[in-house]
Amino acid sequence: MATVVELLSLLLVSLLWGCTNPFLKRGTDGLEKVTETNRVSQLLAEIKFLFLNIKYLIPFLLNQSGSLIYYYTLSTSELSLVVPVANSLTFLCTLLTGKLLGEEFGGKQAVVGMFLTMAGITLCVISSIDNQDTGKRDMAQPVH
């Protein structure tokens, strides 16, 4: 049962990260027009621009909530499963969300990459589940 919760957590993280990436990119439109005379003033002006921009702030907060779930999942799950699954699914979510928003998709190579990514994730999940099942059987002792 814990594996289902872990996988759902990873899916949620990937959705929060991946689906917000294109919106974060759009939210930064106009940032290049912010200019100040020195580096400190420039940095403060850019921060002000971003955090007063609702088109950036909402995706940013959603993205960061994904990070909180990710760190919790890291502490409760197998590291060799969490990192590749979360990052791979994030990539797929970013591509698909970008496509829905009208961004370039990448053509046939992107589709092949998505299928290969999904195959790799599937292998990671199957391997993780098999290792858990094997571990349970090895530890079980017959009752006499």
UniProtKB/TrEMBL annotation:
GO biological process: glomerular filtration; pronephric glomerulus development
Keywords, in A-Z order: Membrane, Signal, Transmembrane, Transmembrane helix
Primary localization: membrane
Family, per entry: Belongs to the TMEM234 family.
Coiled coil (UniProt feature): none
Topology in the lipid bilayer: Multi-pass membrane protein
Localization of this protein: Membrane
Signal peptide region: 1-18
This protein's name: Transmembrane protein 234
One GO cellular component term: membrane
Species whose genome carries this gene: Seriola dumerili
Transmembrane segments: 49-72, 79-98, 110-129
